[in-house]
Amino acid sequence: MSVTLQPNDFDITKEMDALIAGRASVGAAVTFTGLVRDMVKDQRISAMTLEHYPAMAKAELERIEAEARKRWPDLIDSRIIHRYGTLAPGERIVLVITLSAHRQVAFEAAEFIMDFLKTRAPFWKKETRTNGQSDWVTAKDADEKATARWQED
């Protein structure tokens, strides 16, 4: 399990190959890649800037990843890469890879990690529109609802 915060793009195939290398027990590998959109609420976006406190962000992503391993003991491994800095539409923001012997564990763990990254990871996002105006992105109710479904009774 590993977490990386970086300003540079990542190679999905290289990351996947490195994670599964030599692991014959892997029967499922799920990937999620988040991208910068060019439209938000009918307004064209020219850039998204992601800011963070490195130690705080890394610790929270590691905590989320550890929680996934606790919930899914059959999770063989996972990889999270989250970018920061100013990104253009179409650029990759985040990569989550989960490995397990069977697909259900890999899918559920990847969904769990992404739901918590969206709502708990300490990144601040600012969208700049093509007209030069910018706004900080606020949490969406749908993201909070997605995260709430993982609450244990």
Provide structural commentary.
With 153 residues, this protein is of the alpha+beta class. Helix content is 35%, strand content 37%. It has a single domain, classed as Alpha-Beta Complex (Aldehyde Oxidoreductase, domain 3). It is globular and about 50 Å long. The two termini are 27 Å apart.
Summarize the topology:
Layout: E1 2-6, H1 12-20, E2 28-35, E3 39-40, E4 43-52, H2 54-71, E5 75-83, E6 85-87, E7 92-100, H3 103-120, E8 123-129, E9 134-136, H4 141-148
Query: What is the count of helical runs?
Result: 4
Nearest-integer average pLDDT: 92
Question: How many separate structural domains?
Answer: 1
Rg over alpha carbons: 16 Å
Percent of sequence in beta strands: 35-45%
Spell out the CATH superfamily.
Molybdopterin biosynthesis MoaE subunit
**Any idea of the CATH topology?**
Aldehyde Oxidoreductase, domain 3
The residue fraction in helices comes out at 25-40%
How do the helices and strands follow one another from N- to C-terminus?
EHEEEHEEEHEEH
Structural class: alpha+beta
Number of beta-strand segments: 9
Distance between the termini: 27 Å
The coarse silhouette is globular
Going by CATH, the architecture would be: Alpha-Beta Complex
Which CATH top level class fits? Answer: Alpha Beta
Q: Let me know the largest β-sheet.
A: 5 strands, antiparallel
Low-confidence sequence ranges: none
